[in-house]
Amino acid sequence: DQQVKQNSPSLSVQEGRISILNCDYTNSMFDYFLWYKKYPAEGPTFLISISSIKDKNEDGRFTVFLNKSAKHLSLHIVPSQPGDSAVYFCAATGGGNKLTFGTGTQLKVEL
Amino acid sequence: NAGVTQTPKFQVLKTGQSMTLQCAQDMNHEYMSWYRQDPGMGLRLIHYSVGAGITDQGEVPNGYNVSRSTTEDFPLRLLLAAPSQTSVYFCASSYSPDRGLSPLHFGNGTRLTVT
To answer: Exposed/middle/buried for A3, CB within 10 Å: 0-12, 13-18, 19+?
Structure first.
């Protein structure tokens, strides 16, 4: 049972435009959400997070939005750059050390 | 700053062989963990440790053993390798076991193939 779902395996965006990566979750106990970015042959690196008490968190070009009623979060990248091409993992936790990951979305930013 | 170091980067085993995947971190993190990444499955937690001498099972622990004799090292042992263990393995650490307090720092992974 996939509790964190990233239904788009891939996304292609033109340089300079907005990239929107989506994530849905089913477990209402999740109260903290994170996005990780992964380049080929490297480990995932932490990108941005959001607590369930907020509906938006911004860090430079990256903004995460949380819609608790819909159990949905999204990562916006504006403007998209070629260096943003990577796999993006959504992850969620309900406290403690357990982190549940989604299956990832491959973002390709084209020139 | 080395961060989290995993060795080897690649390994091919035959069914029934054993091996140890090494993981070391130099950030004085108390929490360390092992994940495996499989196509269409995301990353799944195998084992974790909240400090030296303390280990516990994650989501998919069967077929793997761990120990934590020092803060820096957290090796993962495969005793009888099986083709189902073909995967990419990531070691990760953080200063706190609370995922809401500190994000994980990952190593670059070990790609294991069991034939």
So the answer is: middle
d(CA A13, CA A107): 8
CB-CB neighbours of B96 under 10 Å:
14
Query: For residue B22, what are the contacts with CB-CB under 8 A and spacing of at least 6?
Result: B5, B6, B7, B8, B73, B75
Contact yes or no for A92/A71 (Cβ under 8 A): no
Residues 6+ positions from B86 with CB-CB distance below 8 Å: B112, B113, B114
Q: Which of residues 19-58 of B touch A (CB under 8 A)?
A: 31, 33, 40-45, 48, 50, 58
Q: pLDDT tens digits, residue range A73-91? A: 999 999 999 999 999 999 9
B106 beta partners? B92
Would you state the pLDDT for residue B1?
A: 65
Q: Are A10 and A63 in contact (CB under 8 A)?
A: no
Alpha carbon separation from A53 to A9, A31, A44, A78, A81 (Å, rounded): 29, 8, 25, 24, 30
pLDDT the model gives residue A76: 98
Contact assignment for A96 to B97 by CB distance below 8 Å: yes
